[in-house]
Specification:
mainly alpha; 45% helix; 0% strand; globular
């Protein structure tokens, strides 16, 4: 059985667009993870993993 990635996973709270927006916010210098997490209704740990590239790896992005 194929592994469900991103918004294909039934427990996903974020869309691919949300993840790209989170990474863009991080890239332009918005470093308040708590605010980002509240805005997207996910945990701060989830945001940290997204910006570090530990999760949503299938979406390409440049860490800067």
């Amino acid at each position: 059985m194929a592994k469900l990635l991103g918004e294909q996973h039934p427990m996903s709270k974020l869309s691919s667009g949300d993840v790209q927006q989170i990474r863009t916010l991080w890239r332009i210098g918005h470093r308040n993870i708590g605010v980002i997490a509240r805005n997207y209704k996910v945990s701060t740990t989830n945001i940290r993993k997204i910006v570090k590239g530990d999760t949503w790896k299938h979406l390409l992005w440049e860490k800067k």
